[in-house]
Write a structure and sequence with these properties.
Strand content: 5-15%
Number of helices: 10
Structural class: alpha/beta
Number of domains: 2
Radius of gyration: 27 Å
Number of strands: 8
Helix content: 55-70%
CATH architecture of the largest domain: 3-Layer(aba) Sandwich
Largest sheet: 6 strands, parallel
Strand order of the largest sheet: 5-4-3-6-7-8
CATH topology of the largest domain: Rossmann fold
Shape: elongated
C-alpha cells in the first residue's frame, strides 16, 4: 500500500498473511460449559430416578385419564382422541401422540373402542403405529383396528364439522383434546360438553386456554402437556429427564434474577464490579 502526500510517496511494509484454522470460538466457552453442565445434570437425574422415587406434582387432568376411560367402558361408549391442528414438526403434536400411546394401552386393557380422527396424513400414520404398539404391550393385539386412526380432511372447519358429527352420532363418553388448536377449539369442546362426555384438554396454545378451561372438565396447561408422558408412565428415564430440565430452568431463572439485581445495583450506585458478573452472562444464547 502506498500513500502520496505532496511530493512524497510513502510505502507500507510488505506483510505476509495466510489463513489458519479456527476450530474453537473461545468467546462462546461459557455456552459450552453450561451445555455440558446441563447435559450432566440430566444424566445424573436419570441415574438418580433409577435408584430413588422422585416426587411429581399431582396433575388432576392426568389423574382423571383412568376415570374417563373407565366411564367409557361402563357405558359401553367409545373414546374420542384428537391430536391437534399441527403436524409432527410441532412439539405439542409429538406430546399428544405420546399421550395417545398411554390412553390406547388403557383402552386396550379395558377393551374400549378408540376413535382418533386426523387432519394430517403423516400424523395419522405415526399414530397408527403408536396405537398398534400400545395394543401389543397390553397383550390385546387382536383388538387393534387399523381404522381406529382415520383421516378426514386437512381443512380446518370441515374437519371440525366432521368431528362434531362423530360426537353427536356416536356420543363418546370421554373426549381428549391434546396438541395445538385454533378457532375450532370452542366449536369442538362445546359440542362435546353437550353430549355429557368427560373432557380432558391439553395445549400450549395460550390463546385457546380460556376456552378449554371453560368447557372441559380438566385442562393441562402449557408444559403439563409435555410432562404428561413421564407422569403417566412413571419411567425413570422420562422422570429423570423431566427433573433435570426443571432444575436447569430453576438455575436459568435464578441467573436472570441475580442479573437484574446486579444491573440495578450498578445503575443506582455507579459501581463497576457488578459488570464483571454480568459480562459472564452476556453472550449466553
Amino acid at each position: 500500500m502506498a500513500a502520496v502526500q505532496g511530493g512524497q510517496r510513502i510505502f507500507s511494509p510488505v506483510l505476509v498473511a495466510g489463513p489458519s484454522p479456527d476450530w474453537f470460538n473461545w468467546n462462546q466457552l461459557n455456552n459450552l460449559i453450561i451445555a455440558l453442565s446441563f447435559g450432566g445434570l440430566v444424566f445424573y437425574s436419570i441415574s438418580y430416578a433409577k435408584r430413588h422415587e422422585i416426587f411429581l406434582r399431582r396433575i388432576p387432568g392426568l389423574d382423571a385419564v383412568d376415570e374417563a376411560i373407565g366411564r367409557a367402558t361402563e357405558l359401553g361408549k367409545p373414546i374420542l382422541y384428537l391430536t391437534g391442528a399441527h403436524d409432527l414438526h410441532d412439539p405439542s403434536t409429538i406430546a399428544a401422540a405420546v399421550i395417545l400411546g398411554k390412553v390406547a394401552k388403557r383402552a386396550a386393557l379395558y377393551e374400549t373402542e378408540l376413535l382418533v380422527p386426523h387432519r394430517e396424513p403423516i400424523t395419522m400414520a405415526v399414530c397408527q403405529e403408536i396405537t398398534k404398539q400400545a395394543y401389543l404391550e397390553a397383550g390385546k393385539p387382536d383388538l387393534f383396528k387399523e381404522d381406529a386412526n382415520f383421516f378426514i380432511t386437512a381443512d380446518q372447519f370441515s374437519y371440525t364439522a366432521a368431528v362434531d358429527g362423530i360426537m353427536l352420532r356416536k356420543k363418546p363418553a370421554a373426549n381428549f383434546f391434546m396438541g395445538a388448536y385454533f378457532a375450532e377449539s370452542l366449536l369442538l369442546t362445546e359440542t362435546g360438553a353437550s353430549t355429557g362426555a368427560i373432557q380432558i384438554a391439553g395445549t400450549d396454545s395460550d390463546h385457546q386456554l380460556p376456552f378449554f378451561v371453560t368447557t372441559c372438565d380438566y385442562t393441562l396447561i402449557g408444559e403439563e402437556l409435555y410432562a404428561a408422558s413421564a407422569y403417566l408412565s412413571k419411567e425413570p428415564v422420562q422422570i429423570g429427564t423431566l427433573r433435570g430440565q426443571d432444575i436447569g430452568k430453576a438455575v436459568v431463572l435464578s441467573a436472570i434474577g441475580i442479573g437484574i439485581v446486579l444491573a440495578t445495583v450498578g445503575a443506582v450506585t455507579g459501581a463497576q464490579w457488578p459488570q464483571l458478573f454480568l459480562d459472564l452472562l452476556r453472550d449466553l444464547k
